[in-house]
């Protein structure tokens, strides 16, 4: 049961974006298109899970004095691996993520989970924590990207499959989109509203329980 | 002393394992990355060729990696040049086509690490409108003060990128002029 808790806590209760407020830079930067959000989210799930497992495995041999450099080396290696794989097999996502991809190295979620969880817990729990937090981050990022893209551009950009170009154009909204949502200011505004909504939901849940 | 040595050795071992992992993945992905990079380059050459026939690649000089003559009815109508320059995020590659008198026909930003929303704007098509048609009779704008107020506002916040792109395109134009339409 406790294993299940480690997996699900990152989805809502300890959601890294809306509750813990970690990884704001890529959240605001990449959430312009749904496809970018999914690509970034999957990359973070991979890096977070692998680094959590690796760090948890090495937690007894990593000296306390050099734990942060060790974590950074491990995280940077997995980010480099993701970068090479995306560049080789999904170049469109690699191009779209641009500088945010190498910046996963300094994404607070990854180092935060390494320091707060993987460095102190077993391999299975650390893996589940990484997957749960990664999925929570991906869901949040995709939600923000969906709202920004639909209202800001009147489109939903997914991945091209066969004859499907990957872009769904929404009638009416695409003729007069609210452009500010595609800009950084729009991202901050939306982030504020979503944070307020999650805060209200959390507070309401506590009141009901009480 | 033993404690420091042990700490150093552990750090070294972790670095060695991580390096080996990266090397292994690099070995597998390098051929596919090379194919992608070459395909991007060919697409870019096609996009800037301005409808002319693309000739054989020749070695450039200085920051100009290479030059490719463009033909129309068998005679040289212009050149494509690839330039290396630097922006805010480090090295950038710019590819541009010129007529034989150095006038910019088309230009495209290639590999770069510029900031999305700022320097990355140089990848968009409208950005190169600032340079198209310049280079012979009208000089290539090298600073924001030489741009219209609209263009200056558009590159605002990414002056270093603009400086890098404009100097590269200018260098290419001067090089093409020096070739004088000869191979």
Please tell me about this protein's structure:
The complex is a heterodimer of chains A (210) and B (183). Chain A has 210 residues and is mostly helical. Chain A has a domain at 2-142. Chain A is 65% helix and 3% strand. In chain A, strands 1-2 form a two-stranded antiparallel ribbon. Chain A is globular and about 60 Å long. Chain B contains 3 helices and 6 strands. Chain B has helices at residues 2-48, 149-154, 159-179, and strands at 53-54, 58-59, 64-72, 75-87, 90-99, 104-109. In chain B, strands 1, 2, 3, 4, 5 and 6 form a 6-stranded antiparallel sheet that branches. The longest helix of chain B has 47 residues, at 2-48. At the A-B interface, helix 4 of A face helix 1 of B.
The gist of it:
The complex is a heterodimer of chains A (210) and B (183). With 210 residues, chain A is mainly α.
Which residues of chain B sit in consecutive blocks of at least 5 with pLDDT less than 50? none
Largest interface: A-B, 26 and 26 residues
Low-pLDDT runs of 5+ residues of chain A are none
Shape of chain B: globular
Radius of gyration of chain A: 18 Å
What is the tally of beta strands of chain B? 6
> Percent of residues of chain B in beta strands?
15-25%
Order of helices and strands of chain A: HHHHHHHEEH
For the report, how would you describe the main beta sheet of chain A?
2 strands, antiparallel
Q: What's the average pLDDT of chain A?
A: 88
The percentage helix of chain A is: 55-70%
Task: Break the fold down into its secondary structure elements and pairings.
The complex is a heterodimer of chains A (210) and B (183).
Chain A: H1 2-8, H2 24-30, H3 34-58, H4 67-89, H5 91-97, H6 108-118, H7 123-153, E1 155-157, E2 167-169, H8 184-209
Antiparallel strand pairs in A: 1-2
Chain B: H1 2-48, E1 53-54, E2 58-59, E3 64-72, E4 75-87, E5 90-99, E6 104-109, H2 149-154, H3 159-179
Antiparallel strand pairs in B: 1-3, 2-3, 3-4, 4-5, 5-6
